[in-house]
Amino acid sequence: MRLKIGGTEGDFLNEVELLYGSSPCASEEIFALPLRELESYFKGWGRVFTTPLVLKGTPFQLRVWNVVKAIPFGTVLSYKEVARRAGSPRGARAVGMAMRANPLPIFIPCHRVVREDGTLGGFSAGEGLKRWLLRLEGVGRWAD
Description:
The chain is mainly alpha-helical. It has a domain at about 60-140: Arc Repressor Mutant, subunit A. It is about 45% helix and about 5% strand. Strands 1-2 form a two-stranded parallel sheet. α4 crosses α5 (about 90-100). The N and C termini lie far apart (about 35 Å).
């Protein structure tokens, strides 16, 4: 399952029901921490997520997602640098593919990964939202 940015709560619950046969109640305790953390983040207060994540992916994707999870709030890394830190120095393009498969945007902040020349690069929810998230975090040229 992949967290989608956009849509409605009903859309999300329908997807969960299709995958797991039942739909969770939004008030269930399991959602309390991630919802608090997301609310705090979008209000500009939350800078670190502590929600435990259970990730499924290839060994390379898992290494990339762990590198990206460690990028501090308000900073960016290039695809090339993420590839280097994930143990594949020539794998910048593969990092882009791993970012495309990122199941939990925001919790795994792939919006903090940009091209080596400083331009945005791709984002599953669109370039406009990537720019907005970087502004929210006060990052460089997007902070104005």
